[in-house]
Specification:
It comes from Georgenia subflava. The two termini are 22 Å apart. Helix content is 1%, strand content 37%.
Length: 679
């Protein structure tokens, strides 16, 4: 029997599951550490309810603390720190304030060099260090870049501080073939000047982000011209006025620059935007306000919904009122859209992207990378790194993990400030540092040859980090069934090919111990102990009809029963502890549990989890009753009773792409997890 290192992390949290909205409770909040101590793999989870009270002292337009870093050259041979399994090299260097990077459909890289007013390009297959070409120049602090239309672009849009322009573009152009056409002009440039761009998923519109003209609208008058109701009718819910008119917003416009209007409001400085590939949702990074203390107000990563209000200047992090505007807009208190991910306050969150390539390990797929340029207004420095925001099925969990660190040498000296980020055509990550003007390339390294099979079955006897049974059996195209085929109390593997079954009564490879034919090749097959003799056998399902067999042999079914509907999902378990397995059918997040193999009404109806969950059944605590667990990505929410409410165990196990199986692998009466990985 062999062992294999296997990722499994218990999460000290609870999950409320049931008909209401479900939300996982994170671990207790951690104290922020100085940036020089950050390391790849450090995990963070900031909840609104854990935020300290704001510190409201002095002028709200002035920062609490000024602590600009001393920028130094990169130490000789120094590279940023990244997790094991990745390597960093210099992609290109020598730039002045390199900011946004975007990848053209053909793989060429576009860079906004804000400090020189230029847009630069790099050949997709350039040898390193790459040499740039000048696509456009003469712009006022260019920042955002977008290709339109997305798949076969005819234009490159560039957002400068004071305008949006577009240039004609054909596939492979690395120098603009014509002058820039002004699409939107006269954008005010006071204070926040970074303007990012994104194209709507339907290709009909573009978005541009415009940050606020102040820290927290401290000089704004009491009411807007014409009153609040009239103002919001034309500018949007929660829109600010005076010098803040059409500031702290995401605006939307037609490709020709027509019909410009506010899309979302209350976003103090949305300095990075992107469309999430998995959901087609617009996301942005937000630099929040500076006057309420070292840990308030957190920056954020958030989805951006049309017509939504995100709080600035009156509220933050959902419904927390800014004391500088206490009592001014109680009408907005319950209309603030809460952000998806809170980032340590004053991190200066800049750009983000969703990893949709295949070069990184599977657990990175679909997650968001965000650059944190770093604080200038906090006693203990924070930021100066790239983080990974964890997603499950396209939804942010709220947790983020440090990915690239090491730019901070000590309490004063800093040699890098990450801003731009994009993917190369081969799935590597490019990160731009606007302190030393360097672009780094991060790629996954080839894994070392494992001592044990890199694929096959990995089965755990307990909720720990070691796979107790590692072996290969069958073919990777086989359907896998788990059961106690010989009544010895231990589950093992059967593989199915068409309507032929190959039974193995040990947790190992080799030849099948029993082969038989049952049912039809297109049947849905279920496993259970239908007669209580301790031996698992098969049932085949055809629509809402179940053909139950009490031995591992061909021939007619021992029982045929109709239950539920043909579109139901079916889960098998011993729901009442009588040693007989029966059916439960699932519709969305509702389970109809039957304690006998018979037609008729369900004996119990329960709502648990979410409609999109993957459901597992097992006797998780060894009490003789099977109950449910739901899976979201690589996270499992285990319940020891058939009832709504909090999960009894929440754990992260394996990889989001694993095939997962449930069984009692060691005969101790408790079901645990195992996975199969194909090459």
């Amino acid at each position: 029997m062999t062992s294999s290192s296997f990722t499994l992390a218990l999460v000290a949290s609870a999950l409320v599951l049931g008909p209401a909205h479900s939300q996982e409770a994170p671990p207790p909040p951690q104290e922020s550490v100085p940036a020089e101590d950050d390391m790849p793999g450090d995990r963070h989870w900031i909840r609104p309810e854990d935020l300290p009270a704001p510190v409201n002292e002095g002028d709200p337009e002035a920062p609490d603390f000024e602590n600009n870093p001393v920028l130094v050259d990169a130490p000789a041979g120094r590279m940023p720190d990244v997790p094991d399994g990745f390597e960093v090299e210099v992609f290109a260097s020598g730039f002045t304030q390199p900011r946004v990077m975007r990848t053209a459909p053909n793989g060429d890289i576009f860079l906004a060099e804000s400090g020189t007013g230029r847009v630069l390009t790099f050949d997709a297959d350039a040898a390193l260090p790459a040499e740039p070409e000048v696509f456009a120049e003469g712009l006022d602090r260019p920042f955002g870049i977008a290709f339109y239309p997305v798949s076969e672009p005819r234009y490159v849009y560039v957002a400068a501080a004071d305008r949006v322009v577009r240039y004609p573009y054909d596939d492979g152009d690395r120098e603009a073939t014509g002058p820039g056409e002004v699409i939107i002009s006269n954008i005010p440039t006071e204070r926040h000047w970074t303007r990012d761009l994104a194209v709507s998923p339907d290709g009909e519109h573009l978005f541009v982000s415009i940050g606020s003209a102040s820290n927290v609208a401290g000089a704004m008058s009491e009411t807007p011209p014409g009153g609040i109701e009239a103002w919001e009718a034309t500018h949007g819910l929660g829109a600010a006025w005076d010098d803040e008119t059409n500031r702290a917003v995401v605006r939307v416009f037609d490709p020709e620059g027509l019909n410009v209007r506010n899309y979302a409001t209350g976003l103090r400085n949305c300095s990075g935007m992107t469309i999430q590939p998995e959901t087609d949702q617009l996301w942005c990074t937000v630099n929040e306000r500076d006057h309420l203390g070292a840990d308030v107000v957190p920056d954020m990563l958030t989805t951006v919904e049309g017509g939504a209000f995100y709080g600035w200047p009156w509220y933050y992090a959902g419904g927390f009122e800014d004391p500088a505007h206490a009592g001014e807009r109680p009408d907005l208190a319950d209309q603030v859209t809460a952000p998806d991910v809170l980032i340590q306050a004053h991190s200066s969150t800049m750009q983000l992207l969703f990893y949709d390539a295949q070069a990184f390990p599977a657990e990175y797929h679909g997650d968001a990378f965000a650059t944190l340029r770093g604080s200038w207004n906090r006693e203990h420095r924070t930021g100066y790194k790239v983080v990974r925001a964890i997603m499950e099925d396209g939804v942010a969990t709220g947790e983020y993990v440090d990915f690239m660190t090491g730019f901070v040498l000590d309490a004063e000296r800093v040699w890098g400030r990450p801003v731009g980020i994009t993917l190369t055509h081969d799935g590597a990550l490019l990160v731009g540092d606007d302190a030393n003007g360097t672009i780094f390339r991060v790629s996954a390294t080839e894994p070392e040859a494992p001592e044990e099979p890199p694929y096959g079955f990995f089965l755990n006897d307990a909720w720990d980090t070691t796979a107790n049974h590692v072996f290969m059996y069958g073919r990777f195209a086989d359907e896998v069934l788990i059961g106690d085929w010989d009544g010895d109390g231990t589950d093992s593997i059967t593989v199915r090919r068409g309507n032929t079954y190959y039974v193995n009564n040990t947790l190992g490879g080799g030849e099948a111990e029993h082969v038989f034919v049952y049912g039809r090749p297109d049947d849905t097959v279920l496993v259970g102990d239908w007669d209580g003799d301790g031996v698992d056998t098969l049932a085949v399902r055809r629509g809402a009809e179940y053909h139950v067999k009490n031995d591992l042999a061909g021939g007619p079914a021992d029982q045929v029963v109709v239950y539920g509907r043909s579109g139901d999902q079916v889960v098998v378990g011993d729901w009442d502890g009588d040693e007989l397995d029966t059916f439960a059918v699932r519709r969305g997040a509702t389970y109809f549990v039957k304690n006998t193999i018979a037609a008729g009404e369900a004996d119990q109806v329960v709502v648990y989890g979410r409609a999109g969950d993957i459901t597992l059944a097992g006797d998780w605590d060894g009490d003789g009753d099977d109950t449910f667990a739901v899976r979201r990505g690589a996270t499992y929410y285990v319940k020891n009773t058939i009832a709504p409410g909090e999960a009894d165990i929440v754990l992260v196990y394996g990889r989001a792409g694993d095939e997962i199986y449930v069984g009692d692998w060691n005969g101790d009466g408790e079901d645990t997890l195992g996975v199969r990985r194909a090459p």
